[in-house]
Amino acid sequence: ATPTAVMVATGVGANNGVLIKGGDALERAQMVKYVIFDKTGTLTQGKATVTTVKVFTGMERGEFLTLVASAEVTSNFSMIILLSESYFLSTASSEHPLGKAILQYARHFHFFDESSTTNGTLNDAKELSSGWLHDVSDFSALPGRGVQCFIDGKRILVGNRKLLSENGIDISTEVENFVVELEESAKTGILVAYDDVLTGVLGVADPLKREASVVIDGLHKMGVIPVMVTGDNWRTARAVAKELGIQDVRAEVMPAGKADVVRSFQKDGSVVAMVGDGINDSPALAAADVGMAIGAGTDIAIEAADYVLMRYNLEDVITAIDLSRKTFSRIR
Ligand code: ADP
Ligand code: MG
């Protein structure tokens, strides 16, 4: 391709909200064999909502939700600090989608005011004056696992099985069966231990992006193999992948492990694209031959990527590969 063709393609991309950082990036995209997608916020909308709350002890439902929300509010801050210390120096103020969903649900439970308008709304004034959240101490966010903190000297753990088992919390068959049922319907089960006793479980659903299936089909037709990588558990990951027709899934991957997944696909010389949105995905975006940050994303993800897909639409993954193929018009 001539320099002019590259310039034209870059312009066409920009008009479609596909920002390409240079001619090399444009050229590499035509050779992509695998496209590795992050699950949460990339294939899914990243708008998790709590669909199920089950308390397994005598604790009152409202008190259970207050405890969990208190732990998650703190996590939204500490997660950022932890990430910035271990990977980058970041001032990004993103919240963990699961924490956000839980906080929102608890607020709704306590402060939803049906009489205020026709549809009802959250009563902010009532919330602000109530000081309903507990004071939390010694909190830590454990990426890929969940959060831990203390409320009135009692430990509270909110997260996945790994978090609870690493802390010696017993998961009964009844609880395990309940979590398995959630996971088989593509939901994430969040387990809560209070004072070292398994107290309850929340089910969280994060809907797929509307265009996700079409894009996966499209990639298959182009001879490109889609892969999904996630920190979420295997059962949920498989259920989501099945809905989309993705055969190759890597689940329970710790944040730093996503880049290793990228490298494992590069081993035989294959050209690998990674599509992600979060801070967690930045090392993988940097490791990929073609890193694609989707949406406004975080600054760090955008920095690490070769492509920025501004429209928050997965169809632009196909647009980007097409544009490269047409520009370099390889005979295949
Ligand atoms: P992803 O790769 O999908 O963005 P993460 O690595 O952020 O996932 O998290 C992986 C898993 O760790 C989650 O599915 C959840 O089970 C648990 N987890 C992480 N952070 C939290 C949190 N703040 N509250 C509850 N669970 C969490
Ligand atoms: Mg993510």
UniProtKB/TrEMBL annotation:
Originating organism: Arachis hypogaea
Q: What is this protein called?
A: HMA domain-containing protein
The subcellular localization recorded is: Membrane
The UniProt similarity line reads:
Belongs to the cation transport ATPase (P-type) (TC 3.A.3) family. Type IB subfamily.
**Highest rank taxon of the organism:** Eukaryota
Q: Which residues of the full protein are shown?
A: 622 to 953 of 1022
